[in-house]
Amino acid sequence: MQVPAPFAYERATSVEHAIALLGELGPEARVVAGGHSLIPMMKLRLARPDALVDINGLGAELAQIRVDGDELVIGSLARHADLLGSAVAGEHFPIFHDAEKVIADPVVRNFGTVGGSLCQADPAEDLAAVFAALDGVATVRGPAGVRQVRVRELHVGPYETVLAPDELMLELRVAIRPGGGSAYEKVERRVGDYPVAAAGAVIWLDGDTVRDVGIGLTAVGAAHFAAPEAEAALRGQPATEESFRAAAQLAAEHCNPSADQRGPVDYKRHLAAELTTRALRRAAARARGQEA
Amino acid sequence: MEVTINLNGTPETHEVEPRLLLVHFIREKAGLRGTHWGCDTSNCGTCVVWLDGKPVKSCTVLAAMADGRSVRTVEGLEQGGQLDPVQEGFMECHGLQCGFCTPGMLMTARALLDDNPDPTETEIREAISGQLCRCTGYENIVRSVRWAAEKEQGGPVTESETPAEVTA
Ligand SMILES: Cc1cc2nc3c(=O)[nH]c(=O)nc-3n(C[C@H](O)[C@H](O)[C@H](O)COP(=O)(O)OP(=O)(O)OC[C@H]3O[C@@H](n4cnc5c(N)ncnc54)[C@H](O)[C@@H]3O)c2cc1C
Ligand code: FES
Ligand code: FES
Predict the structure, then answer these.
(1) What is the DSSP secondary structure assignment for residue A34, as one 8-state letter?
(2) Chain B contacts of A8, Cβ < 8 Å?
(3) pLDDT tens digit string along A183-215?
(4) Considering A119, A144, A175, which residue would you say is the last residue of a domain?
């Protein structure tokens, strides 16, 4: 029987209360949201927090998905299933629905959260690549107040973020700009597994020219889950198969996959190029209104 | 700490350690052994119960996180001595052999049909994709869920005409 080591448990009744509890309980306390990454790690003693601060009661404050001005706002406590079921998220960014259909399985998606995914900072987390492609910004709150952190600056290494132990992620914001399309492509060994490799793309077109583009990659050791070299090379280019392939090649060259039970390095690098091409192709088709 | 969970409509209060997993609260504290516990790694889904109406893997939720909430287990499917149509379907279409995966499959199937009363085979396979069955090859599980859907829709019932009876 796998059971976590003992810890103290507190239930937060508000965002302020959660932050105060994290301060009181000290740096070895952790937030628990869905617990679907943290509890398995605690069973294996890969994580051993002294105390958990349960934020599941803060749904009214933290689980909304809505449009605010020209931004899509996703609460950190939104479940994967909420994001998959959100018409407004899918309308503006189909990449969310592409990704959520293949993140874990339907039962895990009922409880795992968007904020927990990003804060977990697993090197193979799908949503890290999605938000990197979209250049999303996290709103984070600690005792000193609120600050904004670009998702591209959130992760400092495997299982490590820039959040202080007493900071809480409140929500994620993504700018809505006209003329865009987005898509996500993943290869997994079996249903419900983390990716062998995956790529997300968002593209804005001026006629047949790439006005702007964002590319996210996961499970292949891309710094900050992004591909800035490929993005720079593609901006201002014609939105054609040739330019997509050239950019995807650059993305694959700049990532740094490691061999593991999911596959060898050259296979993952091949996937990085191929999946980036497919994501760009589908994102462009959507920007042109040719594909739902 | 003291945890009270509304379990199949009845409040269950127990003094527990915060590290107690929901599956063990259900099995050991409340004594309901219908919910199984298998892989312990959030993969097999035999531990699936409903938490506030949604299927979750109870080996990956703390009992403390369910304090003050409602949990429905396989024991809560039968109503007033009448088996739920998904239970009847599993009997009719041989949706189980060893029965180890069955409690989780039944809870997910019931949630699917509440949400989508007439699911396609693909939708059923997708709904149970986070759950493992080592016996049936899934084929009979899919047929069982379709059988329940058809019964609830008042449509043709594919196996025998008298669903509730078990033939010895
Ligand atoms: C069987 C299975 C399959 C999976 N497959 C995939 C997959 O294919 N792709 C994928 O990307 N993921 C996958 N996952 C991971 C899943 O997406 C994550 O478990 C989940 O989304 C993490 O969210 P959580 O709410 O469960 O986080 P928790 O486990 O509660 O927390 C994770 C970490 O984030 C911190 N945290 C949580 N919320 C906050 C917050 N608001 N502010 C600050 N810190 C916070 C916690 O302290 C902890 O360190 C899988 C998980 C399982 C169990
Ligand atoms: S015991 Fe919970 S998923 Fe296997
Ligand atoms: S019936 Fe044996 S595991 Fe499913």
Answers:
(1) S
(2) 18
(3) 999 999 988 899 999 999 999 999 999 999 999
(4) A175
Task: List domains and CATH numbers for chain B.
Answer: 2-76 (3.10.20.30), 85-155 (1.10.150.120)
Give the range of the structural domain holding residue A91, as residue numbers without chain letter.
63-175
Chain A residues in contact with B107 by the CB 8 A cut-off are: none
Give residue for tokens 């869920």: B145
Ligand 3 centroid to B137 CA: how many Å?
A: 9
pLDDT for the residue A206: 95
**Ligand 1 pocket mutation pick from A101, A117, A141 by most atoms within 8 angstroms of CB:** A117
Residue closest via CA to ligand 1's atom 50 equals: A104
Q: What CATH number is associated with residue A26? A: 3.30.43.10
Q: Tens of pLDDT along B139-161?
A: 999 999 999 999 999 877 755 54
At residue B50, the 3 state secondary structure works out as strand
> Is the CB of A2 less than 8 angstroms away from the CB of B40?
yes
To 10 degrees, the CA torsion angle through A93, A139, A152, A136?
A: 10
- Identify which of A224, A226, A221 has the alpha carbon closest to the alpha carbon of residue A258: A221
Which pair of tokens denotes residue A131? 């938000």
Query: ipTM > 0.90?
Result: yes
